[in-house]
Fold each of these.
Amino acid sequence: MSETSEKINLLGLSPSKMEAFFAELGEKKFRAQQMLKWIHQFGEADFEKMTNMGKGLRAKLAEISEIRLPEVVYEDISADGTRKWVMRMPGGSSIETVYIPEKDRGTLCVSSQIGCSLDCSFCSTGKQGFNRDLTVAEIIGQVYVAAMSFHAPGERRERKITNVVMMGMGEPLLNFDNVVDAMQLMMDDNAYGLSKRRVTISTSGVVPMLDKLGDVIDVSLAVSLHAPNDALRDQLVPLNRKYPIKELIAATNRYLNKLADRRKATIEYTMIENVNDSLEHAQELSELMKQVPCKINLIPFNPFPNSGYKRPSNNRVYRFRDYLLSQNHIVTIRSTRGDDIDAACGQLVGRVDDRTRRSAKYINAVQLDSNQ
Ligand code: SAH
Ligand code: SF4
């Protein structure tokens, strides 16, 4: 289908919007459930093959709607099982999606925007600026592509993806409605059926939107803190000047209190050498983290050209972690999986405006693939 198609893309309809769509056609609720299953569980994009829908309905659907999938321009599997996809968006920019397998789970890292407006000083997405929000179809399309990569077309998919984290490109709370609809699909039993504990939204701290989020959906929360005081956080995460740490922690607690069960927030702390990785920072962080039920995830900084920052030595990371552990915090260090395809989550590069910026590496890779 052309990018300018005016047909409704059913890939991007949340469960309630799918029901409304079929209701308008005079069809019952179960049709919406059937359609969700065809698309998200069987990967079927051809209405003619949807044999449990009547002939007349199939013809009507083909006339007014379509199932338009993202265009995958690059796919790679690294030695450790990590997978990466680059998807080209209408307009030419591209986004990245990464799948990271672990012993007991498989995590997909999903993007919410092309670029990001918040300009955190250590983030390559932020350095590229903001291009646009992704649509619901483009967000859930990343899950679709990853899920379908594990099975043959038309077969019911296997449950390889157990967790989704909104930690790719972009600030998900600034693309609120589309991200909420996509997460509804991730959790719907007729689509991906993920548990609410295993769908995580990551935010750098858009406080009003965090309050709104708790009113409409129940998903797990990761907060990108990165600094234990406002002076430092103002430099690393400019949004902090608008919503300082105290307000962010209060909003995090309000959010956790709205959840149906007792759940901790994940506090993300990207460690940058000689910037936020000293023992004094660990002490300050430890005091702060007593104010919120949380697990602390330390992310060694992932260097990129001209960032001006360095990744701390392992010893410095362990020293920081050990101090927090000694204060009875729950602490993990994010392992840098998939380094051979530079794919680990939270360090996605993506390309904003492909004509000027898409790297030769991708173009070569695509050509190589098609020669095989
Ligand atoms: N905008 C959201 C989600 C996307 S970023 C947010 O900021 O939370 C996902 C995570 O990766 C964030 O915790 C972010 O701070 C981290 N991150 C960004 N750039 C990084 C880098 N160069 N090295 C390590 N972690 C990085
Ligand atoms: Fe945006 Fe998150 Fe990167 Fe900050 S860390 S610039 S909020 S994507």
Amino acid sequence: MYIKAKKSLGQNFLIDREVLEKIVSIVKIADKEILEIGPGSGNLTSYILKKKPKKVFVIEKDDELSLILKDKFANQIEIINDDVLKISENEITDQKLVVFGNLPYNISTEILSKWIININKKFWFESLLLMFQKEVADRIIADSNNSKYGRLSILTNWKLNVEKIINIKPQSFSPRPKIDSSLLLFTPKENSFELKDAKNLEMITRIFFSQRRKMLKKPFNQIFNNAKEVASKFNIDLNLRPQNLEPEIYFKLTKEYEDLKR
Ligand code: SAM
């Protein structure tokens, strides 16, 4: 059936069988509860179902596609016809979900950030296998001292292990996007650094990386009244740049900020 893709919903459907096969071969699906974000016309969903999952939930915002999915899969899947950004993902089921998503690129970082911020103490998923624009994936996996390193890398590193699985060419999609894509696998990090509120880590990294070419002095003075004292406590040279500090330092600085604020 011909489906006209809606640009506003980031609709680029995966049509490459090799890539679809690859995506469902990375993590165990059999007997697991699966959540797929943005199933579109159900190309990936069909491959997931072949692997005999215990249950498949899908979240699809497009009403028209939700009807097509209902027609195609009947009661093989549970369709949540809603916006993934509005859903409380930890209320979908009691089981830990295995999550798949060829994400709408216009909101991919928003989805990932929202999930990380909402993790709190309990992980609602076992793994996340997600497709991003390659340029965004490179930012997520970047290490310190790299020009792509920034807020997304630090936020991800706080709660998740991440591994790049493959890059995917525009020809694997219809309609073809203009850019390459990358598939990333995220798994929960044991014993992540404890913070009172993830929003503080977001705020602190925003202040640092909105002036990424400036020396650390400036954001430090903006955040801390006792900037010099804090810098020396953590052995930080204030003449360095934000990208020179490891994620762990940002976690410690956030905790320091939270403790001072009390
Ligand atoms: N998974 C399909 C595939 O690989 O062929 C389609 C992927 S397409 C890149 C993104 C999908 O996410 C589309 O089906 C789109 O309608 C859906 N979508 C866009 N925004 C959404 C949102 N806020 N919540 C849920 N689904 C959304």
